[in-house]
Amino acid sequence: MYTTNAIESVNSSFRKVTKKGSFPNHEAVFKLLYLRVKELQKKWDKGHLNNWSMVLNQLLVNDQFKDRIEKYIQY
Question: What is the pTM (predicted TM-score) of this model?
């Protein structure tokens, strides 16, 4: 399903920032990942999702998600 690309994007972003150096302890890595999540959140807050109509159609075809999603759709 298309929506897994968002998860892969986050994982890729984490790999990019962690391979740039060595870290003195686990806390330093967690701080770096936290800052990256904050950057990604700013990016996502713009509200534009690529191919959202395609994702929505795929979710509506699946009976598991259809009832959950339809209550939020404005016709």
Answer: 0.55
